[in-house]
């Protein structure tokens, strides 16, 4: 049970971190110019999001992987809509949603591969 609380804490913290980093302006901070860097960031956000929420939901939740995958995509889309509506320094970007999809998909593939070769323990 302690593990489940830890996974929930990490998943919620990561989810909130994504919201802050997506919705708060960091224009006054120095930037590093790397082509497509924001797409890599989005992919990593949703890769980790998917792993953490799956770790929390994997035991005792029917179809946890599907729920987490859809949840990741929905959360990413919501963040894009909120960027377009609630901020003046950011805008919604379909390419960001595709990067979110990529990160979540890679996480799902890793989870499926791991589950195939290492059965889930109940503790």
Automatic annotation (TrEMBL):
Keyword Transmembrane helix listed? The answer is: yes
Keyword field: Membrane, Transmembrane, Transmembrane helix
> Which domain of life, per UniProt?
Bacteria
Listed transmembrane segments:
6-27, 39-59, 65-85, 97-118
Q: Check the record and name the PANTHER family matching this protein.
A: DOMAIN PROTEIN, PUTATIVE (AFU_ORTHOLOGUE AFUA_3G10980)-RELATED (PTHR28008)
Task: Specify the protein name.
Answer: VanZ like family protein
> Which organism was this protein described from?
Flavobacterium caeni
């Amino acid at each position: 049970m302690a593990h489940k609380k830890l996974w929930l804490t990490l998943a919620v913290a990561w989810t909130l971190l994504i919201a802050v980093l997506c919705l708060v302006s960091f224009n006054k901070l120095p930037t590093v110019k790397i082509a497509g860097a924001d797409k890599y960031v989005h992919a990593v956000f949703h890769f980790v999001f998917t792993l953490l929420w799956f770790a929390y939901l994997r035991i005792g939740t029917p179809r946890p992987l599907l729920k987490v995958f859809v949840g990741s995509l929905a959360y990413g889309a919501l963040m894009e809509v909120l960027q377009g509506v609630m901020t003046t320094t950011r805008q919604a970007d379909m390419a960001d949603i595709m990067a979110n999809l990529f990160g979540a998909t890679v996480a799902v593939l890793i989870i499926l591969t791991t589950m195939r070769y290492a059965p889930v323990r109940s503790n």
